[in-house]
Write the structure tokens for this entry.
Amino acid sequence: MKIFAVSSVSVACAMLVAACGGGGGGGIPVGVLAGSGTTPPPATSTKVDVKVVDGAISNASVFLDLNENGVLDSGEPTAKTNSSGVATLDVPNASVGKAPVVALVGTDAVDADTGPVPVAFKLTAPKDSTGVVSPLTTIVQYMVKANGTSTADAAAAAQAQAGLSVSMLADFTTDTSAGGKVAASAARLFVVSVQQYTSTLSPAAGNPDLTGAAMTQGDIDKAIIDKAVESFPALVEVAKSPELQAACASLSADTCKTQVAARAAEVNADSGLTAGSLPLVVAAARAPAEAPTPSAGASLSFMNFGDASNWYYRVFMASAEENTPDSSGNTRYRGYSRAMTAGVFYEWATGGAYSRRNDQHWNGSAWVTCPVGLQNVQSARDANGRTANNNYCDGLEFSSSQRSEVDISDRKIADIVAVIQASLPNYASWGSPPAGYTGGGTANYGSAVFPAKSKLLTQSTTSTQSAYAFDVTSPLIGYSDPISAGDDARANAGSVCLSAEANTSPTIAVTSMETMLARFKGTPCVYSQGTINGVAGPDPNEWWGNSTLSVGFIGTAPVLANPTTYMTGNTYVRFAFTGGNAVTYYTCPQRQVNGSPRNCTAVGTGTYTIVTLGDARVLTLSNPPAIAASFDYERVMVERGGQIYYGYKSKQRTTYTTRLNLPAANAVFTQLGIPTITP
């Protein structure tokens, strides 16, 4: 080799005499340093640039997480970001592309968009995509680690689930497209969501979890990132809203900061991660579910109790045979809602009320219902408590889920019920009397304890696809064409808006899409200022129930017969067809006494589309207003069998439930006098 190298140099010099110092032998041989007479050692490290962004973040500590523990350990390459958010790591060649990068954003860091960082947070990026570290790459790395998928697959899945049009791995701060702006707003919402959780939950470090073990800051941080990632699709929906996009034309604007803080807080409140639920969340994360054995089982997801003749519960159950995976690796289960009302027993398969048991949905080939006892299909739950594919109610919804279990054997039933009630906002009434119950009874658990093998289950379910459906109990009923057209009745004693028809509930069935489009155009009946119990209402006093349709309703205030206010404080969200295929959205205060929508205000516009599915036509709406983000469904209208119905399509979302397994559920039922469950 020595001879070959010399020969090579000689040949090279023969060809390039001037470059080799002529023929006198005084030139510098190739690969030898001038004046040293030695060959430099090969480079042992590589400079790797990493850009940290929410906005560009300066003075963040960036490091290569060689042992993937999320902590900056001795010997791990580290550097600070400059004013452009860029840090340069000196990475050993053997470690390039072999470990994720982490950015510790402390309160000494500065975001180019929003200023000094008020609450510290952490960002990360996958090992094979370290050029940009952002809230979005953090979600991708979370999915890589949690699911064992490749970076490309995790990024594609996260982008699809969130409904973003840009890559999760890209630098959205340089993307001025509409999709880039949504990504930037969603990233900001994600960071603020994490910061709000951190401020609320970090003081619990050192307190016991549900099993009595002390919670560490690491446990709390994990609970926070779990919930923030699960809630990200909801944050993206907020980011897409015209109101937030208008407020955040500049992310540094005070109006943007206020909007982001408020909307992130709303999403956090719906997630169920609170100081009250944290001990359960941490305990569940420490004790994930084991792959179930093929035995009969059940999980009780909700329960109300007034007395032995007045109760309600929702349960999912499976026999040993149903829990045994078939040749495709699938298992089966059945869902039941059961109620006893004044001693009369009711049972149905799906929906929040017995009256909704016959809702119909499009399963891809036909309009079907969910009969009692219908077997739902899901992939067998693995050793980490996951199911990959759940076909619920013959195509009504497809989803995946994650379940964890905490042993509650020998724990007092009353204590665990209190934990359940604190676990989610909508679980505050778990175990309380059912709606409409007026008796004096209440759940009394005494000092009873749960038997052996009792488990408290926490489950997150992420929907991936849902069907169009409609409520057969809600056919669209309207007014005649003259009243639907509206009128100003203030100076017209003969106005149709003063007729007997206008002063009663509607009675005319709407039988076709064309009739609906013609009648509901957002043209109110206008009256003079009114009063209720001496309280003056708006002037003019506009009634919009004649010519608008419902998207949804916000509020819980009752409609009072003898109120002290003109409006209830509740809000209708409604829409009307306002020319061509355009729709206009409105918010409308609710009037006391009769509960009608009054004095609506336009809050956005969109369009409608009509498609044919089997023997039905379905009208869908685009660009709903931001206020509709709180609804867990999209409004549709369905024409079938010569009638229009209010319909819906569940949004893709993550929902959370806290459940009792079969031994625990039956212990509660035995204590209260409810018949026990037999799968």
